[in-house]
Amino acid sequence: MKKSYLAYTISSLERYETHQTNYLSSKKIQISLVEKGAYFLTEAIIIIVSITISLWVNNWSEDNKNEEIAQNFQKSISRDLTHDLLEMKEDSTSISRQLQCATFIRTLPLRPEITQDSISSFLKSNATLFYTTTLISPNNGNYEAAKSAGYFRLLKNKALLNDITDLYEERFTWLTRLELEYLSYKRKT
Known about the structure:
The chain has one domain (2-188). It is built from four helices and no strands. It has helices spanning 2-106, 116-131, 141-149, 158-188. The radius of gyration is 45 Å and the shape is rod-shaped.
């Protein structure tokens, strides 16, 4: 019985050692899995933060590019409108001179003091006014290019955009039609 008790004790000790070894091995695996999980979690957080920063930088860059496009659009429209305004002032001056000449000629019968030489001199110096045509040709290339490219959405000042659109779509069209009617009238008379 001593032998069997001793064998039983040795067997129990061996089982305990095996169990302890398995337990420690399982603990090491658990610790290893926890360490790996923490490592993977850290890697995932780093990747998420990197992607977020990358998207933020990309959006910031895109916003800057869009702002530059909007500013270039505004500058080009401003240049075009400045040129159009200068052209309209010149046309207005020409039309005013034509009106003065027409008024002078129309009132000639009422002014007997004006001599034939004065009339000839006047007609020679102003002859080109009677053949001059004034027709606004708006510089709308930049407007049309921005419109077709979809750059209007980049303009933050919507009131300005409405004014620009109204000018090019309505007012210039109306002004051109008015000038064509004036030219038609002028040719008839």
